[in-house]
Amino acid sequence: MIKQKKRIPLFKVFVPKEAEKNVKNTLYSGFLAEGKKVNAFSRKISKYLKNPHVVLTNSCTMAITMAYKIAGVGPNTEVITTPLTCIAGNIPIVSLGAKPIWADICRKTGMVTAENIRPLITKKTRAIYILHKEGSPANLDDIYALKRYNNKIRIVEDAAHAFGAKKNNKKIGSFGDFICFSFQAIKHITTGDGGALLCGNKKDYIKAKKLKWFGIDRDNREGRNVWKEDIPEWGFKGNMNDIAASIGLSQMKYIDWILDKFHQNGRRYDEAFRKTKGIKILERNPNDFQTYWGYTILVKNRDKLIKALNRCNIESGQIHARNDKYSMFKSNKKLQLPNTDWFDKSEIAIPCGWWVSKQTQNFIIEKVKEAVS
Ligand SMILES: Cc1ncc(COP(=O)(O)O)c(C=O)c1O
Questions:
Q1: Is 58 touching ligand 1 by the criterion CB < 6 Å?
Q2: To test the ligand 1 pocket, which listed residue (62, 133, 182, 191) has its Cβ within 8 A of the most ligand atoms?
Q3: Ligand 1 site, residue 294, Cβ cutoff 6 A
Q4: Which of 8, 134, 193, 230 has a CA-to-CA distance to 149 between 20 and 30 Å?
Q5: Do 246 and 190 contact (CB within 8 A), yes or no?
């Protein structure tokens, strides 16, 4: 048996050498709060994702929370959502006093479908949360069409895994109601912790700018005494700072290279596993560009595979546990989510990113196939 000496991590973040210089310059500049670096990073994101309405935050969780608040999510309202995501998508619903309504997912994609969401829409629905799972764009046309059943509904897209992904050649984030990105420590682009809320219109953008800093607009503060102004609506302490933005800025030069590496590896896995007995791969729309932030396969005996890969020094695992099991959500115990049940038991992610060379990937493919045979 070939022995893999160094452990192959499931996640590894790319930080170029110049990040050191950038951060050092900021550290000794005398200003660490939200300032020039955040503005520069925001402009870069705006240009890259082709949306002028970018608000940088201290996390994606904050971006999602702000999006819900702008959408009118609060006491006595509901958000239709998926249980198969990071709890960052669902905790903000309860923290704002609203109720999550769980929709079942599709076995082929791991994402919620318009068909499953439709019967759950009520007068109380204010938002639909969708995840672009591992950077595979969700079926947005069908999801956005659901707004016709209740004109108060806004769509909150979790694009934490989808920086640079494209739907029909249009970048995720360049259109839609609210699109939330993460720059947390293991994402394509990182600021240590950080995020972005992209809005589909100027009105929401102006509101988002206030919500990220207590309810006050930080722009054009020269000559203004903000403390003399009223704060009609409370906001959060959710802004990004210049240290985080300096790290993010250092990676933007490399973003296409980073995405290309993830994408190429993802495509190679698709080819390698498409016809493998004992493995199901996720269905992907050929008109979209997937970022393959993770690579999930579905197998019968996940624990056996994790153990076998572990013996070969390959890290693997389930990225998100289903959320409806947590008692904080006070879920309806009788809820029938058969696809979620099956998916939650079968999914396992394997290393896919820029750190996985062709040779390493061949090794992983061989070991996965051996373990499921
Ligand atoms: C799908 C998804 N959404 C949201 C988040 C939360 O991101 P953040 O840590 O930036 O709040 C994560 C986190 O890793 C995630 O995987």
A1: no
A2: 182
A3: no
A4: 134
A5: no
Separation of alpha carbons 69 and 89, rounded Å: 13
CA nearest neighbour of 68 among 218, 177, 142, 192: 177
Cα 346 from Cα 259, distance rounded (Å): 27
Query: Residue 60: CB within 6 Å of ligand 1?
Result: yes
Q: Set out the domains of the chain in order of their start, with CATH numbers.
A: 18-252 (3.40.640.10), 255-372 (3.90.1150.10)
pLDDT digits (tens, 9 = 90+) for 243-284: 999 999 999 999 999 999 999 999 999 999 999 999 999 999
Interval between CA 370 and ligand 1 midpoint (Å): 32
Per-residue model confidence (pLDDT) at position 5? 78
Instruction: Answer whether residue 229 shows pLDDT above 70.
Output: yes
- SS3 call for 364: helix
CB distance 89 to ligand 1 below 6 Å: yes
Q: What span, in angstroms and rounded, lies between the C-alpha atoms of 264 and 356?
A: 10
pLDDT per residue as tens digits for the range 73-90: 999 999 999 999 999 999
